[in-house]
C-alpha cells in the first residue's frame, strides 16, 4: 500500500492510466510545466509531454477539441481551473458530449473526463466558488463523481477514464491536500465502480447522506452527538449519477430519519432529488420530515468570510436534532466565528429566500 494525499492519489491514477493506455490525454490551462491549477501533477508532463496539452484561456474551444478527440476514440481528461467556467463550454458538454453516445445508438462513445474542484477554499469569491452538481444533473449521459477521500479518488478516477460515457469529476477544494489514505499497489485491486455508495459510519437513530466538505462536517457532528446518545449512520454516495439509492433506502428503513447535507445551494441541489426518491419509495419508513442542509441562495463572498456562508458542523447538528425532535444545547445555538466575523451567519439569507 502507498500512503498518499488526495492530490497524490489522483496524480497516481492518471499517471498509471496514461502509462497503460496511449489514448489517454490530459489537457487544460497551465497543466504542462506548471502542473495544473487544481493539484500539481508534475509527473504527467515530465513523462508524457506529447500527451499533456496546455490550452489557452478558451474553455469553449478546448472542450470542443476534447469532445472531438473522444469521438475519434481517444480518452481526454479536461481540467477546468474552476467549475464556474463550465458555463462557457455548455454547448460542447451538453450537445457534443452528453447526447452523441445516445443519439448514435451507442455507436459513438464519448469517453472523456471533465475535472474541476468545487466549493470554497480559494477565497476568490462568487466567480470561483460554485458547486455545480445541481446544474449538471439533468443531462442524460453525463455521469457525476464526487469523491471525498484519497482511496476513492484513486480507484474511481481509473474507472472514469475507462468509462465510455462522459464523466464530470468534481473534487472538493477544501480536502485536496488535507486528506490522506492508503491506496493499492496492484492494478487488480484498484478500480472502484460508479454507483456504489459507502457507509462511512454505522448508526441507528438518523441517516445522513453527505459528500465533500459536508461529509467531513457530518462525521465530526456524529462524533459530538455520540456523546449525547445520538447514533448517526453516514453514507458517502461517491457518485451522484449513477446514485446508489438502495443503500440510502436500507439505512432509512433502519433509522426512520434522514438528513441530506451538501455545500451546493439548497434550492435545486441534488439533495432535493435524493429526498424525492426516498419519499416516493419509502415514505412510510420516515418518522419525521427529511431535513436538507446546504448553502443559502446567495453567492460566496471574497476572503475568509466564505466560511460563514456555507454550512458547517453546527448546521448539520441542528438539522439532525430538528428531524429527531431533540433540543439544542446552548453551545449549539451559537455561531462559529472565523476571523472575527461571527454575525454574518445570523443575517445570511434563509434557504427559502432569494
From TrEMBL:
The keyword Methyltransferase does not apply. InterPro entries: THDP-binding, Transketo_C/PFOR_II, Transketolase-like_Pyr-bd, Transketolase_C. Keywords: Oxidoreductase, Thiamine pyrophosphate. Transmembrane segments: none annotated. One of its GO terms (molecular function) is oxidoreductase activity. Residues 4-178 form the Transketolase-like pyrimidine-binding domain. PANTHER family: PYRUVATE DEHYDROGENASE E1 COMPONENT BETA SUBUNIT (PTHR43257), PYRUVATE DEHYDROGENASE E1 COMPONENT SUBUNIT BETA (PTHR43257:SF2). This is Alpha-ketoacid dehydrogenase subunit beta. It comes from Lawsonibacter hominis.
Amino acid at each position: 500500500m502507498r500512503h498518499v494525499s488526495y492530490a497524490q492519489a489522483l496524480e497516481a491514477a492518471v499517471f498509471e492510466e496514461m502509462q497503460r493506455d496511449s489514448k489517454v490525454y490530459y489537457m487544460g490551462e497551465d497543466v504542462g510545466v506548471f502542473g495544473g491549477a487544481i493539484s500539481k501533477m508534475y509527473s504527467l508532463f515530465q513523462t508524457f509531454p506529447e500527451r499533456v496539452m496546455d490550452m489557452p484561456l478558451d474553455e469553449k474551444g478546448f472542450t470542443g477539441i476534447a469532445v472531438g478527440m473522444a469521438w475519434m476514440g481517444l480518452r481526454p481528461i479536461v481540467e477546468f481551473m474552476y467549475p464556474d467556467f463550465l458555463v462557457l463550454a455548455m454547448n460542447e458538454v451538453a450537445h457534443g458530449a452528453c447526447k452523441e453516445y445516445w443519439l448514435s445508438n451507442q455507436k459513438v462513445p464519448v469517453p472523456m473526463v471533465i475535472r474541476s474542484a468545487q466549493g470554497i477554499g480559494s477565497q476568490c469569491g462568487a466567480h470561483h466558488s460554485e458547486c455545480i452538481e445541481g446544474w449538471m444533473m439533468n443531462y442524460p449521459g453525463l455521469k457525476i463523481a464526487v469523491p471525498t477521500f484519497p482511496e476513492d479518488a484513486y480507484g474511481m478516477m481509473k474507472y472514469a477514464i475507462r468509462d465510455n460515457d462522459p464523466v464530470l469529476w468534481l473534487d472538493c477544494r477544501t480536502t485536496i491536500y488535507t486528506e490522506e489514505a492508503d491506496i493499492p499497489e496492484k492494478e487488480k485491486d484498484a478500480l472502484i465502480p460508479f454507483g456504489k455508495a459507502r457507509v462511512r459510519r454505522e448508526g441507528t437513530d438518523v441517516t445522513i447522506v453527505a459528500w465533500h466538505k459536508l461529509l467531513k462536517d457530518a462525521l465530526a457532528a456524529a462524533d459530538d452527538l455520540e456523546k449525547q446518545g445520538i447514533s448517526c449512520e453516514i453514507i458517502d454516495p461517491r457518485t451522484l449519477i449513477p446514485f446508489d439509492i438502495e443503500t440510502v433506502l436500507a439505512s432509512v428503513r433502519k433509522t426512520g430519519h434522514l438528513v441530506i447535507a451538501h455545500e451546493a445551494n439548497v434550492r435545486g441541489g441534488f439533495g432535493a432529488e435524493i429526498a424525492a426518491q426516498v419519499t416516493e419509495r419509502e415514505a412510510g419508513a420516515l418518522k419525521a420530515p427529511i431535513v436538507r442542509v446546504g448553502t443559502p441562495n446567495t453567492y460566496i463572498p471574497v476572503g475568509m468570510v466564505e466560511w460563514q456562508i456555507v454550512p458547517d458542523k453546527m448546521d448539520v447538528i441542528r438539522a439532525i436534532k430538528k428531524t429527531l425532535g431533540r433540543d439544542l444545547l446552548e453551545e449549539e445555538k451559537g455561531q462559529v466565528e472565523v476571523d472575527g466575523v461571527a454575525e454574518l451567519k445570523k443575517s445570511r439569507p434563509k434557504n427559502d429566500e432569494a
